[in-house]
Amino acid sequence: MPALLKHSFLASTLLFSFHVSAAISLLITDQNNQALEHAIIEIETLDAVQTNIPDTPLVMDQIDKAFSPHVLAVPATSYVSFPNSDDIRHHVYSFSKAKPFELKLYAGQPKSPIFFENTGVVVLGCNIHDAMVGYIYVYNNSHVYMSNAKGETTIDIAPSNIKNAWLWHPRNNNGVNHKQVINLAELKQAKATVTLTLSVAPVKATGSFQDVFKTAN
After folding, report:
1. What span, in angstroms and rounded, lies between the C-alpha atoms of 6 and 8?
2. 170 and 178 in contact (C-beta within 8 Å)?
3. Buried b vs exposed e over 110-137: b needs ≥16 C-beta within 10 Å?
4. Average pLDDT of the chain, as a whole number
5. How far is CA 105 from the centre of its chain?
6. Per-residue confidence at 69, pLDDT binned at 50, 70, 90?
7. Fewer CB within 10 Å: N-end or C-end of the chain?
């Protein structure tokens, strides 16, 4: 069980709006009605759909002393490349159980991408710049969606075809690896609103790799 952060926590409300059609439009906000970006919805469907593995490596760049994108979702057994687009060198590493690795101090493009074979959350840091924190969410289901800067995303699956669904956010109070079970399969109305509550840490409490790693394992 991950240790709790020694900071006050925000209780966040996730508001899901469902509209008439097979598509499900989601709006994800906190308790102050502020949009929550980088929330991931992972769905297991009743029909066995094979997860598509990219033919080329996915990209986690480093731009202006930050990982870009901040959160990258990748299917298990994918490769990820870590180019450094800054004019300074970075030293990328992770101690996460899903994928411990290290790319020692470098500039430009590393020689080889990294293979992510295990599901889970990989917290990224830079050994030179402690404020650099990024996340790779490795999944094994064929349907994964992420909220945008407005807290919005659309699920193109009929509720009747949903077997299981999970919600993840990097600031989850229960730990970086925690996925909250959500119920989308039993929705019977053509239009409905479901409100869920997720306890998340303030942004300042997760401002460095060391802070985040305390809750990651």
Report:
1. 7
2. no
3. eeebbebeeebbbbbbbeebeebbbbbb
4. 81
5. 26
6. very high
7. N
Distance CA 192, CA 185 (A): 13
DSSP character for 203?
Answer: G
122 touches 99 (CB < 8 A):
yes
Taking residues 63-74, report their average pLDDT: 97
Q: What 8-state DSSP symbol labels residue 216? A: T
- Integer Cα distance of 161 and 43 in angstroms: 10
Given 3-state DSSP classes, what are the helix, strand and coil percentages for the chain, each rounded to the nearest 5? 5, 45, 50
Task: Compute the Cα dihedral for 152, 157, 160, 164 and give only its sign.
Answer: negative
Evaluate if residue 1 carries a pLDDT over 50: no
